Amino acid sequence: MRNLYNSLMHAARAHAQWEIETSVSIIKNRKTLLILFIMALPLLIPAMAHAASTLPAFIGGKSAFGPSYFSATTFYGSIGVGIAAGLITGCIGAGGGFVITPALMSLGVKGILAVGTDMFHIFAKAIMGTTLHKKMGNVHVGLAIAFLVGSGLGVTGGGKLNRALFNYNPVMSDFVISSIYVVLLGFLGIFALSDYFRTRKDVSSDAHGGPEKMPALGAKLQNINLAPMIKFDEHVVPGGRKISGVFVAICGAVTGLLASILGVGGGFVTFPMFVYGLGISTATTVGTDIFQIIFTAGYGSISQYAVYGYVFYTLAMGMLLGSLLGIQIGAITTKVVPGSQIKAFYALAILAGFVNRLFALPVKLSQMGYISLSVSAGKTINTMGVWLFFGLIFVFAFWIIGTFIVNIPKLRAESANDVQVTKGGVTQ
């Protein structure tokens, strides 16, 4: 279990690094910033928001759940969610995407709409950035193609399942999505907290990376000659290694299914399956994973959610704007924040999402008739979960932002010193 947690965290760090590079690329590109400003301008004008609120609440019925307007509270809330997720990504160096779907659901967004919007937000950030070419050196074309074939099937299946559940019973759809997040965030949160207590006095501890030596399962699978065979990792071992494309496609299908159901990139399962299951090196895994996230999120958000009306574009834009700001502040603040405190806050943020979705389950079970719960009691339990979640998240956010503001003089001094050192190195 410890190895599984370490591999999940390594995948989260790899995805976070990609997000940081993508965000920096977007901010440094003036044309991209201008496009963002033009797209966001109508959303930031309260008068337009108020005028839009006079439109019908929804377009179509349950099969086209696309809001035709947004409330100012929900939109500004999405910016806050984006900032918080960005701070987690930039400061902790681990993906903050796990908190986005639960946060949107806490704001009153239906689960299926939160999933579709989160996937679209990931895709929008990917296509606006220009960092893909930096990762292409570690992308193995054969592995990527086999993986994408499987992920395409998985994403399609996950999208169909989510839509079928929502059309059958919207409450059951929210319950299933929340239950999966309870299991996932509970596992990650407990291990993240134990990791903090285990490593806070051990400065040499490092949970990065995975095994470069061949795991037992990987060795067995690579000995199975099942066409088509894909050769890879020539840079790791002489002559490289071989694995059946069928196994890679199966991994892709699992990743696509979970990504489509949860609204995340799917990298958190790609890494353990590739490294511990198939015996693929970490470098090849990271490169291929970043590559697949772009296509998986793009295909899933558009073909399985957007065309059916399950993407809330204004919220996606709000999260994108917020995350760009949060990631920059978080990445800079790491220079003045102790690593042990960062680990503690990350564990609390994950556990906050776990508690939030856990407290939402009794209301869903009551609405479906499985348990007896008064309306007032259900509302109280749900409200407690929402306040605990946003309370911990915003304490973390204010702590990071406050630390950043307090240390601005120190950060400026370090930046000026770096410039002087660079100039000195050039003139020598």
Description:
- By secondary structure, the protein is an all-alpha fold.
- It has one domain (2-427).
- Helix content is 74%, strand content 3%.
- The protein contains 17 helices and four strands.
- The chain has a two-stranded antiparallel ribbon with strand order 1-2. It has a two-stranded antiparallel sheet with strand order 3-4.
- Helix 5 (100-106) packs across helix 6.
- The radius of gyration is 22 Å and the shape is globular.
Which helices and strands occur, and which strands form pairs?
Elements: H1 2-28, H2 30-40, H3 46-52, E1 58-59, E2 66-67, H4 72-92, H5 100-106, H6 111-128, H7 132-135, H8 141-168, H9 170-199, H10 216-222, E3 229-232, E4 241-244, H11 245-262, H12 267-278, H13 282-305, H14 313-333, H15 339-367, H16 375-406, H17 408-427
Antiparallel strand pairs: 1-2, 3-4
- Rg (C-alpha, Å): 22 Å
Number of strands: 4
Helix content: over 70%
Multimerization state? single chain
Structural class: mainly alpha
Taking the alpha carbons of the first and last residues, their distance comes to 52 Å
Spell out the helices and strands N to C. HHHEEHHHHHHHEEHHHHHHH
Arithmetic mean pLDDT: 75
Instruction: Tell me the strand percentage band.
Output: under 5%
Query: Which strand order spans the largest sheet, edge to edge or round the barrel?
Result: 1-2
Q: If helices are DSSP runs of H or I spanning 4 or more residues, what is the number of helices?
A: 17
Number of domains: 1
Largest sheet: 2 strands, antiparallel
Low-confidence stretches: 46-52, 54-65, 203-211
Principal-axis shape equals globular
